[in-house]
Amino acid sequence: MATAGQARGVVIANAGRWNWDAALDISALEAVAAVNSCPADHPTDDEILGLVNDSTGVLITKEIPVSADLIGRLPDSVRLLVEAGTGFNNIDMAAAKAKGLTVCNVPAYSQEVVSHLVITFVLNHSCSLVEQQKLITAG
């Protein structure tokens, strides 16, 4: 339960997956809310629901399916569903809307990395690097 001066609780549904992003620091979040985390990369709905309670206001996920069934089983205290990345393709948006949940993502997530990848592809195609690598591998 959130203490005085803290926002409603936050549940991070699959905190283990966050380690792929160099173990994100959530200390600022912990300073303003009670945070429960599931260490599994791909938790079951029941594992997620085991962390959620009537003081949970926010559910944060990262690249895992959030089904209509899971959304329907969330307590009414959950008002915000956050995809800690880009896109909403993993979230049943119709179910979230029907439940009155606000859904958001992080539109700037990975901008720098994606930009670097695009430049890498441009350079690769400008000098046929893949073809040269295949020739080297083939002897």
Short description:
This protein has seven helices and five strands; from the N terminus they run βααβαβαβαβαα.
Can you describe what's shown?
This protein is elongated. Strand 4, helix 5 and strand 5 form a beta-alpha-beta unit. It contains seven helices and five strands; from the N terminus they run βααβαβαβαβαα. 19% of the residues are buried. The longest helix is centred in the last third of the chain and has 17 residues, at 111-127. It has 139 residues and is α/β, with parallel strands linked by helices.
Comma- or semicolon-separated keywords:
single chain, alpha/beta, 5-stranded parallel beta sheet, 17% strand, disordered N terminus
Number of strands: 5
The helix-strand sequence is: EHHEHEHEHEHH
Q: What structural category arises from helix and sheet content?
A: alpha/beta
Low-confidence segments, given as residue ranges, are 1-6
Radius of gyration: 20 Å
Order of the strands making up the biggest sheet: 2-1-3-4-5
Q: Give the percentage of residues in beta strands.
A: 15-25%
Mean of residue pLDDT values: 85
Q: Mind summarizing the main beta sheet?
A: 5 strands, parallel
Task: Note the total helix count.
Answer: 7
The portion of residues assigned to helices is 40-55%
